[in-house]
Amino acid sequence: MTRVSTALLTVGPRTIAPWSDRSWRVSGSAQLVEGSTPYWLVTPTLPAEHNVEPDVVQVEVPDPSAVVDSVLMLLACWFGDAEVETHLVEGHNIEVVEGGLRQIAPYFELADETVRYLAGRLSKSLRLGVTVLDEFS
Predict the structure, then answer these.
(1) Labelling 109: which of 8, 22, 72, 77 has CA 20 to 30 A away?
(2) Quick count: other Cβ atoms within 10 Å of Cβ 91?
(3) Residue ranges of the alpha helices (H) in the chain?
(4) Cα separation of 78 and 55, whole Å?
């Protein structure tokens, strides 16, 4: 099956400036690649704040909650602070190995309380932009 990028998610710090300001910058991006199993392909700006493995986050089922969970997971892993990391480790969603590398669990599952925590915590520090990519883009 052909793989196609259908959406682009841009991530930046919330505290710098409004979108239209020159000082606002992109800290990373992720593209939603659809095919047999959709996934987010994450590209942080270099040097990345956190090294994460693998560089993709799967969207296991075609359900809106799975898309939300995958977005929260990629934001938490690449852009989350030490408290977010601790929360994910305690929930067995990531493992931190040698050198501080964050390894995403193959079949992560975010509990409802974790979703609320991550959404609240990350919304205070990150700003997102979503672009739908279609044949006219």
Answers:
(1) 8
(2) 16
(3) 64-79, 82-90, 112-123
(4) 10
Two tokens, residue 134: 């279609």
Question: Are the C-beta atoms of residues 68 and 89 closer than 8 Å to each other?
Answer: no
Cα distance between residue 37 and residue 34, in whole Å: 7
Q: What's the pTM? A: 0.86
Nearest alpha carbon to residue 110 among 57, 44, 41: 57
H or E element at residue 29: strand 28-34
Q: Give pLDDT tens digits along the chain (137 positions).
A: 678 898 999 888 876 666 666 666 788 899 999 888 899 999 888 667 788 989 889 887 778 888 899 999 999 999 999 999 999 999 999 999 998 899 999 889 999 999 999 999 999 988 888 999 987 75
Other Cβ atoms within 10 Å of 124 Cβ, number: 8
Of residues 47, 46, 66, the one with CA closest to residue 57: 66
Query: Could you give phi then psi for residue 100, rounded to 5 degrees?
Result: 80, 10
